[in-house]
Specification:
7 strands, single chain, seven-stranded antiparallel sheet, Pnp Oxidase, Chain A, alpha+beta, 138 residues
Length: 138
Amino acid sequence: MPRIVVLPLLMLLTLAAPARVTAVPRADWTPGEWASESTLELTTDRPDEGSYTFPVWLVVVDDQVFVRLGGRAADRVQKSKSAPYVGVTVGGKRFEHVRCEPAPEQAARVAEAIGHKYTSDLLIRFFPHPLTCRLVPE
């Protein structure tokens, strides 16, 4: 195959390839940079289901990352072999050891912040959310 065709083809494949997410050190935990992100991904490892990654909404309140979890997600986090730790992918960065610290005292503030950030929360707020967590890297 002529070089003229190969080079553009390689460039196209490189641009089309999904971005790689690599684990980064705790020092790269920068909540302020993620305030405009719409979701982050949590990874759990329940014995009956293995590793499972799922998206959740996030809000940054007082320079801390919070998530509000429904029953299914809360169950995954609480029954994870690594509980209270989860993996977190946010803003193209992967953190392997993040504590999902229950923050019931922040539930109202987090719910209000989520309501302001996500218009579809108009309906979702009426579903149960048994766990509000502050995400703390370790």
